[in-house]
Amino acid sequence: MNPARAAPQRIQKFLSDAGVASRRAAEELVLARRVLINDQPVTTLPTFVRPGTDRVIVDGVPVRAQRLEYFIVHKPAGVVCTQRDPAGRTRSVDLLPPKLPRLFPVGRLEADTEGLLILTNDGELANRIAHPRYGVEQVYCAELRGRMSDDLPAQLLRGVYVAEGHMRPRRVDVIQRGPNRSVIEIELQGGRRLEIRRAIAMCGHKVRRLTRVRIGPIELRGLPAGAARRLTPAELRALKSGAPATPPSRRFRPQPAPSADAARPPRAPRDSRAPRATRDSHAPRAPRAQRRTRRKTVRP
């Protein structure tokens, strides 16, 4: 698409996509009069900018829209998904090639959880993947200690309440059941960060290893631990088609055609209807004693 004809964007989104700051930090930059659009200071929100046409300057440095990048990473255990870690642990962004714009993980994983992680600077696609209302499925492979009980899949499918909410998988498949090791595959709908380990522990089992193996149509297969690669054009198209642009609750649903039995003749105008029978407000009322007696006789 020609950048000169790009649609207007909010200044917060433009600065976030360019890697200058997060959207909230970008709002503070605008309110501090540190952002110029076409040599004019911006002091109010919302403010829109047209990428490729308007000139944006932050603290005297020109800002240009960056190219959208899409990477997948096989996150090992012990790697964190935060942008800054005071403890100095390895971050997921440290596994990416150098000289890339600021990317952020989509659908974060806990430090002790490994597996598929998507990193991008496309905020719109990231929201469609991670937000629960869009229903993009995520598949996890859980390795349990010892032999699992026969009713564990049924317990999970009925739903387990954890601190993060109600975890009710869409599918639970038993991959292996042995005396020392059992493996199950869990498919969750939506991007809610539910504690799968705690949910399985509440069912009487302990998770030895938890790996996310799929997000929508993107699979972890063939990617070694700690490695990263760009999404292919076919994978990107599949990911965008698998992450709907409209939440399921807001999609258009055609209304069924009315049946012949449901067809009714049109109602007559109100003026042509017969007046309702109303009690004459001027008619004399019965004495109070008689009214009480009448009410008593009505009661069983």
Description of the molecule:
The protein folds into 2 domains: 3-63, Structural Genomics Hypothetical 15.5 Kd Protein In mrcA-pckA Intergenic Region, Chain A, CATH 3.10.290.10; 70-248, Pseudouridine synthase. Helix 1 (11-17) packs across helix 2. It starts with 8 loop residues before the first strand and ends with a helix. The model is unreliable at 248-263 (pLDDT under 50). It has 7 helices and 17 strands. It has helices spanning 11-17, 23-31, 123-130, 152-158, 196-202, 233-242, 288-298, and strands at 9-10, 35-37, 40-41, 48-49, 56-58, 61-63, 70-75, 104-106, 114-120, 137-145, 160-162, 165-167, 171-177, 181-189, 207-215, 218-219, 228-230. The relative contact order is 0.12. Strands 7, 8, 9, 10, 13, 14, 15, 16 and 17 form a 9-stranded mixed beta sheet that branches. It has a 4-stranded antiparallel beta sheet with strand order 3-2-5-6, with no helix packed on it. Strands 1-4 form a two-stranded antiparallel ribbon. With 300 residues, it is an alpha+beta fold.
Write the layout of secondary structure elements.
Elements (H helix, E strand, L loop, with lengths): L8 E2 H7 L5 H9 L3 E3 L2 E2 L6 E2 L6 E3 L2 E3 L6 E6 L28 E3 L7 E7 L2 H8 L6 E9 L6 H7 L1 E3 L2 E3 L3 E7 L3 E9 L6 H7 L4 E9 L2 E2 L8 E3 L2 H10 L45 H11 L2
Parallel strand pairs: 9-15
Antiparallel strand pairs: 1-4, 2-3, 2-5, 5-6, 7-9, 7-17, 8-9, 10-14, 10-15, 11-12, 13-14, 15-16
